[in-house]
Structure formats: C-alpha cells, structure tokens
Sequence to fold (220 residues):
Amino acid sequence: GQQLNQSPQSMFIQEGEDVSMNCTSSSIFNTWLWYKQDPGEGPVLLIALYKAGELTSNGRLTAQFGITRKDSFLNISASIPSDVGIYFCAGQLEQFYFGTGTSLTVIP
Amino acid sequence: EAQVTQNPRYLITVTGKKLTVTCSQNMNHEYMSWYRQDPGLGLRQIYYSMNVEVTDKGDVPEGYKVSRKEKRNFPLILESPSPNQTSLYFCASSLSRGTPLHFGNGTRLTVT
Fold:
C-alpha cells in the first residue's frame, strides 16, 4: 500500500496554543481527508479537500491540500481540552490510504 | 441518525474458533470497507465492496472473508482466527469509492 508520513507523531501543548501537523507522500493524491479519533471510538471526518491549493476551514480547524498534491496540512487554532485525540490524514487514489496519526494532548 | 453500527464492540476468542463481526449502515451507501488498526501501522484495508454481491481484496485480506448480500450489511468473517489477527477493526461506508468514509465505533478483537 501507499506510505503516508504523518508528523509529528505526538504533541503536548498548553490550552490556547495553536497546533500544526502535516502529511506527506511520494504519491500524488486526488483527495485529502482529515479525521479525528477519540479513545474507544471510530474516526470522525473533520475536513475534506478536493483540489490542489484548496484551503478549507471547519471552526478552529483549517486544512490545506498541497500544491504538489503530495501533502496536506492541518492547523488547529486556540486549542481546548476537547481537542485531545488522534488526528489522521488520508489520501485517495483508487482507495484511501491513512497516515499513522498524530496524538494530541492539551494541557489545561 | 446516520451511522455505521458494528457488533460486537469487544471480542475475546481462541485460535481456530470461527467468528463473525457484523456491520450495518443506514445511509444507503454503495461502498463499504473493513480496516484493521494496529499501533504504528495506521488503518489498513482488509476488504471492500463497491455494491451488492461485489467484493474485492484490500491490502491485508489473508485470513478474512466478507459477503455483501444486502446493501446495508457487510459482515467480516474469520474462519480460523490466529493471534496475529488480534487488532482493532473498523467498518466504514461511503456513497461510492473515493468519497469520504463514515466509520463505525470499532471492534476490539483478541485471539488467544
């Protein structure tokens, strides 16, 4: 399968700080998705990106589809405790391929 | 409420004892898929189905079977489970292949 490199693997931040994470691949993808997974639950879709250069926001979350179509970025502004969880990127060719996740801990 | 429902949520079994994990979606989605999630490896696709009676292998299909007799259901079958199939399993569905996936809440399987 395709390899998606997601970084960082984990983050520990203070409440109120901004967060940035990214996904890179050697392959060109048609679609990029960002998911969040809370403990004991399935991934929930946060943002979907469909064309190169696209910048999309969902509340305090902003994601971008990289110009090269080989990467994507997710930013969370003014983090709050409920942002805690694991964030996954997914890139689509004929199927979706998933990154290994970024574990986010927010310290109140 | 639109959802993907998996059962059971937790399952402990012994090597070789056949088991089935059920998956049902109420969104009239054509595409359904099974993934396993392992530490450091992310989500890997086991099998997928583009529509009723159409199934195909994903990246890690060995030791698994699926069926799609009805649009809403997509059970995962382990005919002879082995300890290396201990994992967290997710069923997902979407309107069609390549559109965003909706995930169930997972089934944690332990094979001893």
About this structure: The two ends of chain B are 36 Å apart (CA to CA).
